[in-house]
Design goal:
single chain, four-stranded antiparallel β-sheet, 2% helix, 42% strand, 324 residues, 27 strands, mainly beta, Methylamine Dehydrogenase, Chain H, 1 helix, globular
């Protein structure tokens, strides 16, 4: 999803962009928030720039510009906008289940819901740090990580009431995406950096990278393989937990932003300029297409029957066929 600092919404899509003991004093959750800092209801919110989305059961939550949080309880057929205590660009969402979840975004904003997205509270907001948060992941109801620009990692052990900061190393590479396989975590980062943690984020090691461009996402596959993807259509596959990587031809130079494993070897990868890549052999080969509107997508989910995909990005939510 390089940081989404003062960038245009389109470029912001492309650039959605070591471990050790936590340091720094925890920051406690905030109290009442001024009315002027709450999101504004917008009739066309579902057609605005959306940056990330997640499904838990029947609930789908999507987030994006101006503090927009959209909810669907009918598999994406209709959407409602939640009122949230933020007008920042929201970049990532994680739902633990159909009730408990977190959203992160610019101004080092972290929001939490306990009722399936109907209401939200702001548990962190540090605009003076000038560090957008770019992804969020939770192991359970209490333990989670938020990562973002300039190498920041925030960790919580109390469900988001307090957060403490750590770094993987001294470099300030932007950390763009967290992928999880059990307690194994992978970070896709700027400047060709990939990291792995085998202990849920307590410690990290740098993986040997197959190229020097930025990675915007990683996708674990049902067969145990990993995909990593980023700038100019670069996509790589690993069958040994990131130890070695094989370049996969994509036929596009569009930035790739997100992927979904549809099962049975079927995978879809999306990106800017309307790029959609599909695989039916576990990500070893892909066939590409370019959607007619050329609108970029930063996130993709499958509808429940797998016959359609939901793309989130420029122009909000779109549905396309899900079959290879």
């Amino acid at each position: 999803m390089s940081a989404r600092l003062a960038l245009s919404p389109v470029l912001s899509l492309a650039l959605a962009l070591g471990g050790g003991a936590l340091d720094g004093a925890p920051v406690r959750a905030e109290e009442p928030i001024p009315e002027g800092e709450w999101s504004i209801p917008a009739p066309l919110a579902a057609a605005s720039l959306l940056v990330d989305a997640v499904r838990r059961g029947d609930l789908v939550v999507a987030v994006g510009e101006r503090g927009h949080v959209l909810l669907s309880r009918d598999d994406g057929a209709s959407w409602s906008q939640a009122r949230v205590p933020s007008r920042a660009l929201l970049t990532a969402v994680w739902m633990h289940d159909e009730r408990l979840g977190w959203v992160v975004g610019h101004d080092e904003t972290i929001l939490r819901t306990r009722d399936g997205g109907t209401t939200w509270e702001r548990v962190r907001h540090e605009p003076d740090n000038e560090r957008p948060l770019l992804d969020v992941w939770f192991a359970d109801e209490n333990r989670g990580l938020a990562v973002g620009a300039y190498g920041v990692i925030l960790a919580t052990a109390d469900g988001g009431d307090s957060w403490a900061e750590s770094r993987i190393e001294e470099d300030d590479f932007h950390l763009n995406h967290v992928a999880a396989v059990g307690s194994d975590l992978y970070l896709a980062a700027e400047a060709g950096n990939l990291y792995h943690s085998g202990d849920g984020g307590e410690s990290w090691r740098r993986l040997e990278s197959p190229y020097i461009g930025s990675f915007f996402g990683m996708q674990p596959l049902e067969d145990g393989a990993l995909l990593a993807f980023g700038l100019r259509g670069n996509l790589f596959r690993s069958e040994d937990r990131g130890g070695t990587w094989t370049a996969v031809e994509t036929g596009t130079v569009a930035t790739l932003t997100d992927a979904v494993d549809l099962g049975g070897g079927r995978i879809a990868v999306v990106g800017l300029a309307g790029a959609v890549l599909r695989s039916s052999d576990g990500g070893r080969t892909f066939r590409g297409e370019e959607l007619p509107d050329n609108k970029g997508a930063s996130a993709v989910l499958a509808r429940r029957d797998g016959r359609e995909l939901m793309l989130f990005g420029e122009g909000g939510v779109r549905r396309i066929g899900g079959e290879p």
